[in-house]
Amino acid sequence: MESLDQDNKKVMETALLAGHILLENGAEIFRVEETIRRICLHYGVQSENAFVLSNGIFITGGSEQEKFFAKVQHIPVSGTHLNKVAAVNQLSREIEAGYYTIEEASMALESIKAMPGKRRRTQILASGVGSGAFCLLFGGNAGDSLSAFLAGVALYWFVLFMGAPHLSKIVTNIGGGALVTLLCGLMHFAGLGSHLNFMIIGSIMPLIPGVAFTNAIHDVADGDYISGSVRMLDALLVFFCIAIGVGMGISCLSRITGGKLLP
Description:
Layout: H1 2-24, H2 29-42, E1 49-53, E2 56-61, E3 69-74, H3 82-96, H4 102-113, H5 120-137, H6 142-166, H7 169-189, H8 196-204, H9 210-221, H10 225-256
Antiparallel strand pairs: 1-2, 2-3
Helix pairs in contact: 1-2, 1-3, 1-4, 2-3, 3-4, 5-6, 5-8, 6-7, 6-8, 7-8, 7-10, 9-10
């Protein structure tokens, strides 16, 4: 009986770890709850009950046949790592198919949790390419796209080496918006681009929390109003900070050029 209780505890701990990895890396609330439920049911824990918020998981279990278990984990709102989400999602399906013992599943989850993120140089390059591509998508020309590429590279260098290690999220987004606006303005005045608006719009796209905003709408649509509201508020705060930063950059450009933004 004691061995069975230990097995149930291990199952609950493993399911909680899977939910933690998912929630920490940007998964939707329903996906976290479903994954926890799949793992528990497969390994024979019928009494599992999980309550998931955007920054925490409350999980309990226990009945006349199963020993009681309860645990709360706080999970701060952070970035998005969809590779980890996809890996846990695939693992939960393989667990259901019977490919893993509970010990093997726990080890696989630890390996997923330790997966490294993208290298900084890759993130910086991706920011530049994304900025240039969005600039073209919004109507810019080749010169505008090149300017947006350079601004996007500078933006993510600022975010990775100055913002995240030393500044708060709010200050980082305000500073990033102001930085790309100033850089695009200077390149525009130097004749490198023709449409300042497209250059700025393309350059700020790496800051836009698209996944968080989409997941917030998804959570609200699924009835997870608390989690959806928190994620929506976080995304709206980022939008607001970017707008402040762009406004500050335009104000500085206006002062530099004597009130004439465009030549």
